[in-house]
Specification:
alpha+beta; about 280 residues; 7 helices; 5-stranded antiparallel sheet; 10 strands
């Protein structure tokens, strides 16, 4: 039997059997995947057992797991049509070592994904900063990758193995910390009075954003802290004052912008001098 006849037999086999088997397998897996995803979505729609962000996270993990499972099953099925899988399993020790070295990064990403999901470090919808560089809102969490949407609109896909530090702005509590530097020509007692008046205004206008105790009282209302530094950087020379307030995580960014607006409005109204440039 020459090479031409072998090739012809293989092609005939593929035409007669493999394509049909593969189509049936693909249809079966796609149907099963669709039904599982629809069932999970229906369950979360009808129940109120979990928060929406937790439900979205679970659905994302299920979709990701199903994609990898379908790909693995199809790959094994196709290989099994040409190779004796029993023989491969008999040498699984050697094959396992080879595959382990080749796929160690992928396995690392998957293991870290499961660990982070079990530790509840973040959920879909949380605003996070990874490695002190990448910030955005989490849109989907898979078992190997996660996707976050930057404020600019860019969608970033990040493997779990590349995430080392996580800043979560939606977990627990957030403190608004606004620092502002003014000129040494300003009387610090005057600036203190102005900042205390800003805190009173913020507590009146932004009180709904403050984190509350069970009895309804604020855990930490907006307050003047004091002079936190002198010459805080080399570019400008002056006093650094600080205002803080403990707020709900979901309101953190909008509340911070409003506090800055109140600060600048008062400073403009009272003609407060900004720090001088350090030209040395």
């Amino acid at each position: 039997m020459n090479f031409l006849s072998i090739s012809q037999n293989v092609l005939e086999y593929i035409r007669e059997y493999l394509v049909l088997k593969l189509l049936i397998m693909v249809l079966f897996l796609m149907t099963a995947t669709y039904l599982i995803n629809r069932t999970v979505a229906w369950f979360f729609t009808k129940s109120n057992l979990l928060d929406e962000e937790v439900e979205q996270t679970i659905q994302g993990v299920i979709r990701s797991t199903l994609r990898y499972a379908v790909g693995t099953i199809l790959l094994i099925f196709i290989i099994g049509q040409f190779v004796d899988l029993k023989g491969i399993l008999a040498g699984a020790g050697i094959v396992g070592v080879i595959v382990g070295f080749a796929a160690q990064q992928m396995l690392k990403d998957i293991l870290l994904g499961f660990v982070r999901l079990s530790d509840k470090e973040f959920r879909v919808g949380h605003f996070v900063t990874f490695n002190g560089q990448i910030s955005g809102t989490i849109e989907e969490i898979g078992i190997r990758f996660m996707q976050i949407r930057e404020w600019s609109g860019k969608l970033l896909t990040i493997p779990h193995g590349e995430i080392r530090t996580i800043h979560n702005y939606n977990k627990g509590r957030m403190r608004v910390i606004e620092k502002i530097t003014v000129s040494y020509q300003e009387d610090p007692r005057r600036i203190k009075e102005l900042l205390e008046s800003v805190c009173v205004t913020c507590n009146e206008k932004l009180g709904q954003s403050l984190l509350r105790n069970p009895d309804g009282s604020p855990e930490e209302s907006f307050q003047y802290v004091g002079i936190t530094d002198l010459n805080p950087n080399l570019k400008y020379v002056g006093y650094e004052f600080c205002v803080i307030g403990l707020v709900n995580p979901d309101d953190y960014f909008e509340t911070s912008r409003q506090v800055r607006f109140e600060l600048m409005s008062v400073f403009y109204e009272h003609q407060v001098q900004m720090p001088a440039s350090n030209l040395a």
